[in-house]
Structure formats: structure tokens, C-alpha cells
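C-alpha cells as discussed.
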């Protein structure tokens, strides 16, 4: 794609580097910004830069959160972990922020979350040491957690991760459940419709039963 401007080409290349954005879509976005008022375009760029610089990660669950201007020296906590009306004794373990958003959109869960940052995948070079297992086990010990809902995508990697955590968990009084398999094996949680996801949460199964049925 030959463009008449180096600046235009650089902007297209930047947009095209984003996942799911091809060169034609990138060009359409860049041309749209080019037609916008200069202040609006500047505000767009400032918003992206500020997001990248100021967004933090929750020290407890690893969800994204804003800076706490009232307590700037305290470890950052997301709006879910700091909400005392949420059930702190139930933790829904998810892969990343996209799965958290998918579950929150169902309005069926009032506990807290823990973002692992991925799943165990030797093929991709991702081992247990690359994921947030240590902080999860620490939360279970310190917060009196009674249930872990393993809401990982139903794939071999997801099942491997659940099995690993079940073996690492030393508290026999902590119940481990998995979301019901209304979700097809091999699918990604973030793409499941809200009704199926909410029913899978409501009909979750003890992990031992899931192992027996496999």
C-alpha cells in the first residue's frame, strides 16, 4: 500500500499493529482522525497515553484499576476487591481481564476474582511460574476463602491449569468447583453468550465430579 505521506504511513502501521486491525481498516481509522478537529485528535492521543501510563494492576487479584489519589502510597486495589458488599469468601479464577468482563456482564456473580494471566501451556513456553498462582494461594490462606470457581476456558490447557492448582491447594476445607460444561470443549470463555455463561456459573460442579465424568 503506497501512501503519499510518511506520517500517514507511520500512523497506519501503528494502527495495523493492533490485533484484529488490517491495513485497510487502519487506513480508514487514520483518515477519519485526519478529518477530525485537531483538538479531538489530540485528545484521542492523550487519552491513550494517559491510559497506558496511569492504569495500574490490582495488588490482590491483578485486575486493572485506576490510581487511588486518596491513598497514593497504598497498594492499588480494583473496584471489585475494595467493594465490601462483594462476597470475599468466593473467588472466581479466570485467565484474563476479558473473561472477567464476560462474567461481570451476566450480573450473576457477586464474589471476587483472580486473574492468572494465562493458562499453563508448555507448547507456548508458559509454565506455573509465569502465572499468578502464588498470590492466589496467599489470598486463600489469609482471607478465609471457602470456594474457588475455576472459570477457565474448556481446553486442554485450561484443564491442565485447574488440575495443577487442585494439587497445589493445601486447604482441604476450600471447595473447588468448575463452571458447568454448557460451554463446548475447546471454546474461549470471552466469546460465550451471557445466558450460557450465567447458567454455567449457576450450575457449577465440584471439581471431583468433573474429573469422574471426563
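Sequence:
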Amino acid at each position: 500500500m503506497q501512501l503519499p505521506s510518511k506520517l500517514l504511513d507511520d500512523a497506519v502501521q501503528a494502527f495495523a499493529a493492533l490485533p484484529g486491525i488490517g491495513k485497510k481498516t487502519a487506513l480508514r481509522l487514520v483518515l477519519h482522525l485526519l478529518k477530525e478537529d485537531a483538538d479531538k485528535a489530540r485528545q484521542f492521543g492523550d487519552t491513550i497515553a494517559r491510559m497506558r501510563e496511569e492504569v495500574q494492576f490490582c495488588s490482590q487479584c491483578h485486575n486493572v484499576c485506576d490510581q487511588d489519589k486518596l491513598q497514593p502510597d497504598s497498594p492499588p486495589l480494583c473496584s471489585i476487591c475494595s467493594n465490601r458488599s462483594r462476597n470475599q469468601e468466593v473467588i472466581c479464577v479466570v485467565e484474563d481481564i476479558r473473561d472477567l468482563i464476560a462474567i461481570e456482564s451476566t450480573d450473576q456473580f457477586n464474589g471476587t476474582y483472580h486473574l492468572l494471566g494465562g493458562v499453563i501451556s508448555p507448547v507456548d513456553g508458559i509454565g506455573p511460574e509465569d502465572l499468578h498462582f502464588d498470590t492466589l494461594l496467599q489470598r486463600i490462606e489469609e482471607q478465609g476463602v471457602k470456594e474457588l470457581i475455576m472459570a477457565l476456558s474448556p481446553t486442554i490447557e485450561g484443564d491442565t491449569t485447574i488440575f495443577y492448582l487442585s494439587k497445589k491447594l493445601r486447604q482441604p476445607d476450600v471447595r473447588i468447583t468448575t463452571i458447568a460444561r454448557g460451554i463446548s470443549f475447546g471454546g474461549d470463555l470471552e466469546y460465550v453468550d451471557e445466558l450460557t455463561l450465567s447458567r454455567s456459573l449457576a450450575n457449577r460442579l465440584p471439581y471431583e465430579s468433573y474429573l469422574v465424568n471426563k
